Amino acid sequence: MYMNISSQLEINIKELKKRFENCQDVIQRQMVATGLPIYVVYVDSMIDRDLVEGEFLKNIMYSLDYMPKTDVFEFLQERALTTADTKEAKTLEDAILAVLSGDTAIFLEDCPKALIISSKNFPTRGVQSAESEVAVRGPKDSFTESMRANTVLIRRRIRDTRLKTLQTKVGVRSQTDITVMYMEGIARPELVSDIQERLKRFKIDGIFDSGSLEQLTEKEWYSPFPQFQSTERPDKAASSVMEGRIAVIVDNSPMVLLLPTTLNCFFQAADDYYNRWGIVCFVRILRYVAALIAMVLPAFYIGVACFHPEMLPTSLELSFAAAREGVPFPVPVEVLLMELAFELLREAGIRLPGPMGSALGIVGGLIIGQAAVDANIVSPIVVIIVALTALASFTIPNEGFASAFRLVKFYLILLGAFLGVYGVVLGMLSVLIHLASLESFGIPYLMPYVAVKADENRDFQDGLIRMPLFKLKKRPVFARKDQRIRYKSEEERNVFK
């Protein structure tokens, strides 16, 4: 139920004091100048007090001496204030929401609306280097918890009026600002409409991070594989928007969501487009191989050691048997013990302060592994396999995607323990079928590897390998079909649009 702002100032003051009861950080001040009462409301430490009290209010007080008897609101908005960022609120709820968002509300006598002045000045973290997506080459800046700062970091890279921003609020109580950024004419209109519709499908008390929004808007919630790509690097977000993707920025979150996404996107790092193509091709192939190792190696070892030792050369089989001499546990239990121990170390390293967490991961792994081997709890080969698996998982650029591989790894370990190599193969097939059935906003998850049209097959040039930049003439499948061209040679520039 919305309450309209009354033309009687006393009624508005009474209601505001009732709403803001026991809110000591909300400043409410009544002033009178040349017989005209005004009431100012703002939240302390969320506004620039020097700007509000030293400039805006001072200008209003000075201008009241020359104020006409009619159209007082319009006079203040258009002539008395030195800022153009003003608006009006006709309901008390809109005015209160503006105040809680960091703006200043001014109520006047005999005026059934409030003047809202933009005065936001939140305490926020400055732009720093990315932590989870370390840049070897390229820009070092990263997103912050300020939505406005994040939109600026993208817009400074795309100086085009066709870069559009749509803003909405999610959360009944938190009223979290969410911005959708896309390139008009390149992004598919149905994708923009789809994400806007999904943001309206649910009601929740509050959203405090983009991860919560991701879970509430994805359709295949049961899948361990993310249907959004998250990034903290503005250059990656800007390049994705230029490809026809959509960036979703959540206030108070330093991670920006990109949609749609495919499996191929998670193996691409921003640095890939700043290095020479031959090096990038090698690194891309290495990432795919590492992902396969991180997912399959422990389960494959269990299957071979327990069910199919004849697959190994005799000398290697004897070496494995000698290493396991005196170990009381079967191979699956060995592997699970070491994998769980490493997961504990990984989680503890994340929760501890930075330097201490890094030291724990390295020293703890060495000490536990060596102690387990010396005590004949596990064999040395299991320690090597678990270490290789962990090392391979760290090569995947996206942490959320790497976590999905960690879950699949345990799924395959269980299948390998019961069915051997056949179980591992069946598990891999089930994962492949699941990936083939996944879609992210209508785009198949395995694109471009499941493309059937020749035009879409050109996405292979930026898939497992990355061709030279001048060969990447077309945008990926995310873009509109009539806007796929993004690069033309010098001879073709006269038709470039």
Number of strands: 12
The portion of residues forming beta strands comes to 5-15%
Major β-sheet annotation: 5 strands, antiparallel
Shape: elongated
The total of helices stands at 15
Strand ordering within the main sheet? 1-2-4-5-3
Structural class by SSE content: alpha+beta
What is the overall pLDDT average?
86
Task: Report helical residue fraction.
Answer: 40-55%
- End-to-end CA span: 50 Å
Stretches where pLDDT falls below 50 for ≥5 residues? none
The radius of gyration over CA amounts to 29 Å
Number of domains: 3
* Topology as a string of helices (H) and strands (E): HEEHHEHEEHEEHHEHEEHHHHHHEEH
Question: Please, could you describe this protein's structure?
Answer:
There is one protein chain. The chain has helices spanning 9-19, 49-63, 72-80, 92-100, 147-155, 189-199, 210-217, 234-242, 277-306, 314-323, 331-351, 354-374, 380-393, 399-437, 454-457; strands at residues 26-33, 36-43, 86-89, 104-108, 114-117, 163-170, 176-183, 229-231, 246-250, 256-259, 439-440, 443-444. With 497 residues, the protein is α+β, with helices and mostly antiparallel strands. The chain has three domains: 9-117, no CATH class; 147-261, no CATH class; 280-443, no CATH class. The strands form three sheets. A five-stranded antiparallel sheet has the order 1-2-4-5-3, covered by helices on one side. Strands 6-7-9-10-8 form a five-stranded antiparallel sheet, sandwiched between helices. A two-stranded antiparallel sheet has the order 11-12. A hairpin with a 5-residue loop joins strand 6 (163-170) and strand 7. Helix 5 crosses helix 8 (234-242) and helix 11 (331-351) crosses helix 14 (399-437). The longest helix is centred in the C-terminal third of the chain and has 39 residues, at 399-437. The two termini are 50 Å apart.
